[in-house]
Amino acid sequence: MKSAVAIAIGAHPDDIEFYMAGTLLLLKRAGWEIHYLNVASGNCGSAYWNAAKTRAIRRREAQQAGKILGAHWHPPLCDDLEIFYDINLLRCLAATFREVKPTVVLTHSPQDYMEDHTNTCRLAVTAAFARGMPNFRTRPTRKRRCGLSRHAPRLVRRPPSKNRSWGLREHDFCPRNEAPGFGLSPQSKGMAGCQSGNGFLFEIDG
Ligand SMILES: [Zn+2]
Fold it and tell me: For the chain, which residues make up each domain, given as ranges?
């Protein structure tokens, strides 16, 4: 069974690069299989090009970023400003979780200036919950992960421990952020110089 698998889930093209790419690179260097998924297409990311052209440009950029990272790239699920905490997106994201079987998820903070970001975080957390529930239907249909416990995602303050090392050093992670309602952990800015914002990661207890 694959165990060292991480997925970064950003709302828009460039979010992973700003918030999570440093962590992904460290995990990749430590031997992890890494995945790259933007929920939205980036179609509103230009005041010059129309939506179709912008969507195509941002898709190429994202694919190139994934290639540079050495990550498995996944296509976006919707357009910008259309990331809502709804059943369609949840079914799609849960299918990806069952396919990829990540043990670590990097995503946005639940506290953020933009709802596309916070909704992405909510969708990622619920998709992680749904991964082992056989009665939850995904789109496309994916079987739940075999042998996986149905416990909630285990929220991690720091990864390295004597019996469970992620291949990263403890000081690569900063102290816990006390985000109300979520016990998720912020990534340290020190994990990568390219991270200018606050991303979050959680571990799925398998
Ligand atoms: Zn964004």
Answer: 5-205
What's the pLDDT at 194?
35
Distance in Å, CA 11 to ligand 1 centroid: 5
Distance 199 CA to ligand 1 centre (A): 11
Contacts of 147 (CB under 8 A, 6+ apart): 1, 206
State the distance from the centre of ligand 1 to the C-alpha of 38, rounded, in angstroms.
Answer: 9
Q: What is the per-residue pLDDT across 124-140, written as a single tens digit (0 to 9) for each?
A: 999 999 988 899 999 88
Name beta bridge partners: 93: none
Q: How confident is the model at residue 202 (pLDDT cuts 50, 70, 90)?
A: confident
Q: Kindly report the pTM of this predicted structure.
A: 0.77
Distance 143 CA to ligand 1 centre (A): 30
Ligand 1 center to residue 117 CA distance, Å?
6
The architecture (CATH level 2) of 5-205 comes to 3-Layer(aba) Sandwich (3.40)
State the Cα–Cα distance between residues 47 and 181, nearest whole angstrom: 36
